[in-house]
Write a structure and sequence with these properties.
alpha/beta, five-stranded parallel beta sheet, 263 residues, 17 strands
Length: 263
């Protein structure tokens, strides 16, 4: 089968691939795309997949903006962390939907539903290909707009020598881009390499908790002890328990950082 996965969380993407391989549907790992723009570019240059697994919130925005810009004429199984308030919208339009975290049994049920529908469509030569109509998109947009709250990242999966390390966002003191790699730094000063640019990761974090210092650094307000005037209209930021460390704002970012400090 030709399968495409739209998912910005590494652990969730890996689980979906594992479940597909367990079901015997992916001898090779299918492509995993983490943003709306990358998904749009892929769909414009590749044949339509047989089946699409789609998260709702990707790195650069809501996935429904993709389906409004590009007509996807294949079945979609949504894999989402949104609560059951969305269930009527999916059921009413015959769309399979998995609420994270989901088990292999739940995953298998969604696949069985796809196989059943696939057989139904194959039996009708003139049947239109299943897809997302404008009415479906409108209904899902309304459900999200009326009931959803921003979903911010709670943890990072970090690839280390001995496997994957789970780093809680609460434990990140600041984030720093260094020579093309973005690092999360905890209170002990341990640096954890992350996937994605600093700007991409910033979109996934609660803006009330993480503030931009300059082009290459974000800081967690929970670790800020005091802020002092610095040279050239900049600010020096001191962190709790780190007397030898000084983070500084850029002159351009200082006004916005002051507003962020005020909450």
């Amino acid at each position: 089968m030709n399968i495409l996965i739209l998912e910005d969380e590494e652990l969730a993407a890996r689980q979906t691939v594992q479940f597909l391989q367990q079901a015997g549907l992916a001898a090779e790992a299918p492509p995993v795309l983490r943003s709306v723009e990358k998904a749009l570019a892929w769909l414009q240059t590749h044949p339509m997949p047989d089946l699409l697994f789609s998260d709702i919130e990707l790195l650069d925005g809501n996935v429904f903006s993709l389906y409004e810009r590009f007509q996807v004429n294949c079945p979609i199984i949504f894999t989402t962390a949104y609560d059951q308030y969305l269930l009527p919208a999916f059921r009413g339009n015959g769309i399979a939907y998995l609420l994270k975290p989901f088990s292999y049994e739940q995953f298998r049920e969604a696949l069985d539903k796809y196989q059943f529908l696939r057989g139904s469509f194959a039996g009708a030569a003139a049947a239109p290909a299943p897809g997302l109509s404008a009415e479906v998109l409108h209904e899902l947009h309304q459900a999200l707009r009326q009931n959803s709250q921003p979903q911010y990242k709670q943890r990072f999966s970090v690839r280390m020598r001995n496997g994957l390390y789970v780093l809680q966002v609460d434990d990140v003191a600041y984030m720093q881009a260094d020579e093309g790699v973005t690092f999360a730094v905890d209170a002990a000063g341990t640096r954890y390499p992350l996937s994605g640019t600093l700007t991409e990761l910033e979109r996934q974090l609660d803006p009330a908790r993480f503030g931009r210092l300059n082009r290459s650094e974000l800081v967690n307000i929970a670790f800020v002890e005091r802020v002092e005037p610095y040279f050239n209209n900049r600010l020096a930021v001191r962190l709790r328990g780190k007397p030898d460390l000084t983070l500084t704002t850029s002159a351009a970012q200082t006004p916005e950082f002051r507003r962020w400090l005020e909450g």
